[in-house]
Structure formats: C-alpha cells, structure tokens
Design a protein that fits this description.
Radius of gyration: 17 Å
Number of helices: 5
Shape: globular
Low-confidence stretches: none
Mean pLDDT: 93
Number of strands: 7
Largest sheet: 5 strands, mixed
Helix content: 25-40%
Strand order of the largest sheet: 1-2-3-4-7
C-alpha cells in the first residue's frame, strides 16, 4: 500500500490461497475458503480503496490475478475461477471509478516461488515441468513482480485501466514444444 499524507495514492492487493483438488474432491468449506479470500477479500479491498480514492478523485489500484485467469489444469478449477473473477472485478471497478480519476488494473503472474507454490517446488519433476512451460525455463521470484506492479501504480500507466498485465515469462505465449 502506498499512502500519501493527503490520502491514498495507490494500493496493491495480492490475494492468494488455493486448495489443489479436483472439483469432485472439493468440500464446500474448501470452496468457501478459497472464494472468501481470493474473490470476496479482493472485492472488499477494492471497494474500500475505491471509496477513498473516488472521494479524493485520484488513485491507482492493482489486484493480483494469475495466468490461471485464462488457463487451467486439473486441481486448479476453483483457484482459476477466482482469478478470472478478479479480472472482471477490476474491469467493473475501472468502469465505475474511472470517471473520478481512479485507475484499476490486474497483474497476472505466472508461476512464482512463494509459500503457495511450495508443494510444487517440493516435487522436482513437477517443478521442472512448470519451469519448462515458460520461455525463460525458470520460475519467477516474487521481487520480479515489483516492476510491473509499480508500473501499473505509477503515472507511467496514466492511460491504462481496466486491463490485466501478464508477467508470466511468456507462459501464455508458448504453445507446444516442437523445435524445427
């Protein structure tokens, strides 16, 4: 969160919880926990920041989504659903807050080394398969999301709102493994 003496200029919201289970194995409590933090939590943060920023007629909000807003794999349906929902929340908030001078965007990271991805990292074959999926053949470090986040929060993105910036090492750009 970036706060100025006269209000709040920018806010980054980074929700992230997942239960890696196939749909038929999910309990309602697990579903509620993932949706409550990722989606409802983001809604509450965006709404609270939006109230302050629209009143002061300026500001920028960045909510973390994921590549999972576009692509999914077994065991990721609920997480992916929430990350896609964040993109729509951002678009709606951008439409509503924009006339008051407030920008709202999403950041879509790829696979990043965090406590959330620790179970994947603990399995070398799984870890390497994820690394091989992007152009750089490696996972991102959390600090690599700072630049894209600061860009979206800054005046350098003064005409950017209602969109998602993917910082995924080219994960979404690569389709297949064929090398001629």
């Amino acid at each position: 969160q970036f706060a100025a003496a006269s209000g709040i200029d920018g806010l980054a919201c980074t929700p992230g919880i997942n239960v890696r289970k196939k749909l038929l194995d999910y309990s309602e409590d697990e579903f509620d926990r993932v949706v409550r933090l990722n989606l409802k939590g983001s809604f509450n943060v965006v709404r609270a920041a939006g109230r302050l920023m629209t009143a002061q007629r300026r500001g920028s909000i960045v909510v973390f989504s994921s590549i999972r807003s576009l692509v999914v794999e077994p065991g990721q349906a609920i997480y992916s659903m929430t990350k896609a929902g964040i993109v729509q929340l951002v678009r709606g908030a951008a439409c509503e807050f924009g006339p008051s001078g407030v920008r709202v965007n999403a950041l879509g990271p790829g696979v990043i080394e965090t406590p959330l991805t620790a179970p994947i990292k603990a399995q070398p074959e799984w870890y390497q398969a994820y690394a091989n999926k992007n152009i750089f053949k490696r996972w991102a470090h959390a600090d690599e999301m700072v630049g894209p986040t600061l860009f979206l929060l800054s005046d350098a993105a003064s005409y950017v709102t209602g969109t998602i910036l993917y910082a995924d090492g080219g994960w979404l750009a690569v389709d297949g493994r064929f090398t001629p």
